[in-house]
Amino acid sequence: MWLYSSLLFFSLIVPFALSFDRKLQFYKSWKFLFPSIFAVAFFYLAFDIYFTKIGVWGFNTQYHLNLLVAGLPLEEWLFFIVVPYSCVFLHESLTLYFPRFRLKDKVSRLLTIILILLLSAAIVFNSGKAYTVYISGTVIVALIFALFDKTKVIQRYYSTFLVILIPFLAVNAVLTGSFINQEVVWYNNAENLGIRFLTIPVEDFGYAFSLILFNLLLVAKLKAKTALKTRQ
Description:
This protein is mainly α. Helix content is 67%, strand content 6%. It has helices spanning 3-18, 30-53, 74-97, 105-125, 130-147, 153-175, 203-231, and strands at residues 57-59, 68-69, 72-73, 185-187, 196-197, 200-201. The strands form three sheets. It has a two-stranded antiparallel ribbon. A two-stranded antiparallel ribbon has the order 2-3. It has a two-stranded antiparallel ribbon with strand order 5-6. The termini are far apart.
C-alpha cells in the first residue's frame, strides 16, 4: 500500500536536501522550475487519465494509497512533481560540476534528426499501438523544440540523461514489477512494442526522456526571459 509513495519519498529526499548546497543553490531555480513542472504535468496527466480509462495501463491497488483523483492514484499525480524535480536537479548538478559533460553542437543536431526519423518510422509501422505512438510523437515534439532552442539544452541533456537513467532504472524497475510479486503499474502489451528491459517497457525510456526535456526547455526559456528583462 505504501510502496509507490515510499519510492517517491526516497526519490525526492536527497535532491531536496541538496537543493540548498552553497555552490549549486538549486532552490533559486524554484521560481522557474515549478511553473515548468505544473505546465508540463498538465499535458502528461491529461493523457495519463485518458490511457488509464481505456486500459492502456493501470495501477495495482495493493501498492498505492486508496486516494484516487480523476481515476489516478494520488501518487501518480505526485510523480509528475517529484520525478521532474529530482531529474532537473541532477541535470543542473552535473552541468555545474562537469561543465564539459556535453555533446558538440553538430553531433547533437545529427543525433536529434536521426531520432526524429527513427521515431517517425516507429509511428508509421506501429500505428495501432497507442502507447508507442503517444510516446514516439511526444519525443518527436520535444526534439523539434530542442532543435530550435537557442540555449542548446539538448547538448548537455544527451549526456546527463545517461546518468539520470541510473535512478530511473532503479525506481521504474520496481514500479513495473521487478523485485516484487506484482507490478505497481501494469501495461497492456497490445498497446506497446512488447520490448522490455528488466520489466520496463522500452516506451518508458522515451516517456522519461521527453518529460524531463520539456521541463528543461521550459526552465531555460523562463530563465532567458527573466535575464532579458533584467538587462532592459
